[in-house]
């Protein structure tokens, strides 16, 4: 049973996320705080924009009972309480999400990249994809044993290891956790840098220093030449 308590004072809209991995029965309850000044409200339940009826009611709470047997029954269920003011509560029913999705990984040629996907519940299966244009292509480790390794760290955690990185490995990779009620995906953007990339700032500094030193040396040579020329001219004048 999942419950949201509305005070009707400071909160006008509250939300709760509910993860469901397999078919189950769910009770959703909207409860009005006993100290609320919202008296005898008119209550409406909705699934998305469709109005549905509540299955039970007490003095300050309203409940719907759901049997979630397929993915089409997931979504948002809301109760709206109308009185002197309007307050609402929304329950978001969804399959377990991938933790830490949409990560960016930066590494170098010749290194190894490791991508980790975790979920709150144990999925039935895991699948990894690489992006080819706009399509997702399943990664087959049997065909690419020298490039990809998929490791099951635990029932709720799966890892993709990419070996001997090259610039061609740059791109977006996806993991998919499959549950009885649907699936969730997480993405990783892999950026592979040249092995000389970390040296570029150092090379730039060295080049600037070299230019500065060369400029100073040329200036010193030019100044010394002018001083010698001036001394010779002074000696000639003394002789005259």
Strand content: over 45%
* Unreliable residue stretches: none
Helices, by number, come to 1
Report mean pLDDT, rounded to a whole number: 84
CATH topology of the largest domain: Immunoglobulin-like
Radius of gyration: 34 Å
- Proper CATH architecture of the largest domain: Sandwich
Gross morphology:
elongated
Taken in chain order, the helices and strands follow as: EEEEEEEEEEEEEEEEEEH
CATH superfamily of the largest domain: Immunoglobulins
The domain count comes to: 2
Structural class: alpha+beta
Largest β-sheet summary: 5 strands, mixed
- The end-to-end distance, rounded to whole angstroms, is 115 Å
Per DSSP E runs of 2 or more residues, the count of β-strands stands at 18
CATH class of the largest domain: Mainly Beta
Helix fraction bin: 10-25%
Q: Which quaternary structure do these chains form?
A: single chain
Domain Ig-like: 26-90, 96-194
Protein name: EMB protein
Organism: Cnemophilus loriae (Loria's bird-of-paradise)
Keywords: Disulfide bond, Membrane, Repeat, Transmembrane, Transmembrane helix
